[in-house]
Amino acid sequence: MRTEDVLAAIATGLWRWDNAAGTVALDGEAARLLGLPAEPVVLPEAAVRSRFHPVDWNEINGIVNLAVAEGTLAEARLRIMDEDGRVLRTVRTRSKPLENRSDGGRPDYELIGTLQEIAEPQPGTTAAHTPITGDWRRSREAFLLDAGRALAEARSTAEVLRVAASLSMPGFSPDGLAVFGVEGDRLSVIGHHGHGPDDEGPFSHMRLDTDYPAAEVVRTGRAIYLPTPEDYKRRFPATWPLAQRFGRVSWAFVPLIVAGRTMGAWMAAFKQPVSFSPDERSVLTTVARMLAQALQRAGVAESERELTTGLQRSMMPTLGPQIPGMQVAARYVPTGGGLQVGGDWYDMIPLPSGRFALVIGDVQGHDVRAAGLMGQLRIAVRAYASEGHRPDAVLSRASRFLSGLQSGDPFSSGTAAAVDGSAEDSAEDFHIPRFATCLYVECDPETGVLEVARAGHPDPAIRMPDGTVLLRPTAGGLPLGIVADTDYPTTRFTLEPGETMMLCTDGLIETGGHDLDTGWARLRAVLESEAHVTEGLEKLADLLVQAVHGPSSHHTTGPLADRREDDIAVVLLCREGPGCGCGAPAEHLVRPARRTMLTVAQAEPERISGARRQVRELLHDWADPEQVDSAVLMVSEMVTNVLMHTDGDALLVAEAVGELGARRLRVEVADGSDELPHKRHPGEMASSGRGVLLMEMLADAWGVDPRGEGKSIWFELFERSKPDSA
């Protein structure tokens, strides 16, 4: 009897599908099963494809790809359609896919196999009906969607393994899971589920040439399915005793492949028999691919976090030993994106004189290059300070260092971009010179005297013992690195007992859509709170950071996501005294004097507005607003007269003493001229000459005190409640 007759008797035909040639060769029985005349024929691919149900055609593509990847047979059920779209019959195909490479390197397949008709069960019989598309397929697709979403949201290796352990596959759920990685020439157990704490021992550090399924999967990149214990024992007799003790009866070892590289293997073990049909293998392979991608993403994220933590720890110094009579607190918060490193920094430097220096700065940008420049600049500033240079000299040398550092950088010219004109914008921007702002404060812990040099950085803020917060204007120069040789004038003032100074970068002020004015108003509310007194300096530092981007509970995805637009660095220096909250609590606190001091140079008349603001902030809780306006008007007049009628600078000192409601304000403006003011009688259209008249009208007391060199003009106001309009 001929083979063709035997195949025809059992309704089985032969076919050969050549994907490269685009033809399909059918014998007579295969042609009949497809609804064609029962004779051998070679047809175009499109003619045969039109005979299959569209849903089944999409399914067979995935099954063929799976069979090629695993080196197994492709098996599927197909519905045959007639020309009118009616289902003629259901056939089962079993074929061996052979992969051939075209001249262009594109993979082509050649399928050689059989087509066999499946008899449909008749009504009233006990035959089970297994639909081609049905609840199982729909549940499988829903499972894969849920698994993909859960694995995509996992942010660490531990989370990925937890998600993998919680997957409940449709119709066949594994009892034990294990994920194997590769370390050199050995396997490593990344994680497992359904095993005891010490069960991974024999499988850890197993050599890749061991006769073990996971090792072979890693070596070959092909999945291994073991439906029965007999299959396991027959194929891997050397390691069968290791698996026998767990009591499982079916195993699947699937490669974890990312970008064509096998990074490990995934084992799914079952206590119930599993035949590993094409649909089941397809599910396992799809989950393995998603699992491999998730593990790679988690590994990259963990590496970035480790790099970020290492950079932060190496670049952010400790605050050093305790300072008698003072306390220091600091915070650094990186920006919310990328590697979470940037150009902000702070430092505390012991000086040879027995003093110490506080430094805070911000290199332009918040990327890896900014972090690198920041690290070099911080070391340079520390070196110059340790040599004993004064604050102005430290910043001058630092500016020269940063300017020279970038001029010698191969990326600081256009040559790098010219080498490859297709470079991305980020690479082209890398050569642009960066500048840095910096504030350098040298402090004498015994006297509280501070000497400040500022390079384009925000001014320090002072919190007085009674909660009043003032911005302390300081002389400044250009940011570091813009001009190599730049002078930085020094401002000197005293941090009184009980006062706290805040230094910060602009990220603390301007984040969240704020400008300098509204940002300071937000921070002033925090500084004026009682948290400093009741809970200490560290708590105040936390509150300042939380005022910008919310408490730590908001650092999650969703509408309250963390909104850090820039790096944040903040340093707090408190001189212990009554009411500061750092030293011993005072039982009977005497309200201390409020004092501010400001120098207005001849070359900086614009700082007159700063003097007016200083006085207004000093009197923020004064009972009579009209007295505040009067004080501001007289200060403006006194400082302007110095700049107009003398050749020197104006030194403003304002002090408010006494209890609330009964305070005395004394303002002095000193200059180096010996010429005393005198009363004038200006005409109606005169633009000057009314200073003395204003003092007589608005001040409760005023006068002029000659000094050895120059004079001091002063006035006093006594606080009184504003009279009722009734």
What does this structure look like?
With 726 residues, this protein is an alpha+beta fold. Helix content is 33%, strand content 26%. The chain contains 21 helices and 27 strands. The strands form 5 sheets. It has a 6-stranded antiparallel beta sheet. Strands 13, 14, 15, 16, 19 and 20 form a 6-stranded mixed beta sheet that branches. A 5-stranded antiparallel beta sheet has the order 8-7-11-10-9, sandwiched between helices. β24 (650-657) and β25 (664-671) form a beta hairpin.
In short:
It is built from 21 helices and 27 strands. It is an alpha+beta fold and 726 residues long.
Characteristic terms for this protein:
726 residues; six-stranded antiparallel β-sheet; alpha+beta; six-stranded mixed β-sheet
